[in-house]
Amino acid sequence: MMERREFLLALAGAAADGQAIEGSVLVHEHILVDFGGVKNPSKYDRGEVIRRARPHLEELKKFGCVRMLECTPQGLGRDPLLMKILSEQTGLEIWINTGVYGAANRSGVPEWAWQENPHQLAKRFIEEWKKGVDGVRPRFIKTAVNGFPLEELDRRLIEAAAITSVETGMTIASHTNGGGRAAEAQLAILDKTKCPLSRFVWVHAQNEKDHAYHERVARAGAWVEFDGVGPKTAEWHRECVQFMERQGLLGRTLVSQDAGWYHAEVAGGGEYRGYTFIYTDFLPAFPAEMRRRLMVENPRAAFGR
Known about the structure:
CATH superfamily: Metal-dependent hydrolases
Number of domains: 1
Strand content: 15-25%
Number of helices: 11
Strand order of the largest sheet: 4-5-6-7-8-9
Helix content: 40-55%
CATH class: Alpha Beta
Structural class: alpha/beta
CATH architecture: Alpha-Beta Barrel
Number of strands: 10
CATH topology: TIM Barrel
Order of helices and strands: HEHEHEEHHEHEHEHEHEEHH
Largest sheet: 6 strands, parallel
Shape: globular
Low-confidence stretches: 1-12
């Protein structure tokens, strides 16, 4: 008789066979975060983080995922060397980012970012793109605004991200507090900086309940990302995706889970959420061609091949 563990593994394999999306990309996930911030960085054991994260990454690969964008920014736990190790161990591409994150009560904002103008900030980000960080080259820009109206720091961070994008071609993923008005305010800065709006991703667009903003931002040429997909939010996220599809805007739509999260500032790392819910419970509600558009074609169009 098959042992229980063998049965569960076989069941997981069967599920993955039916729900896998080969070549798929998760555009917004985390492995490690540290909300101690720049003033109170936490100590953690990379080996322990690897022990917690690796099984989830290996499980994810069974569902056809080949790449994860690790969205933890500098100042809040970005660890390129850890990502390099996990990528080598699992065979999963793990992309890191450059930029400065202005949300989370500004806890991840380095002291120099309060002083420098957008061109000085952009020079730092471009240098990271050219030279790498701990031997790993950033592949996208992660930033954040704290709300609407945008404060002076928010405007400088977005302008710096836009200058960096013009120079490097990297896409900007912006954690956007303040909903659709804050998203549109950022697009105005990109437009003024002559940065293509197609290089802007409105992160956490699901927090805006007025679909009119989703439509306007997408029609302007930017990407609208509904992340945080999970058991408690799946119905709303499906509504958002279905709205975009009805408006002919599925091609400007991204989905992800904002999952994972080994919390360096919490003893034992806290709860670690896996990465497969989107495959097992969210995407099956959509036709196969929509699933492939959301998970294979759009992520590559938004962030590069």
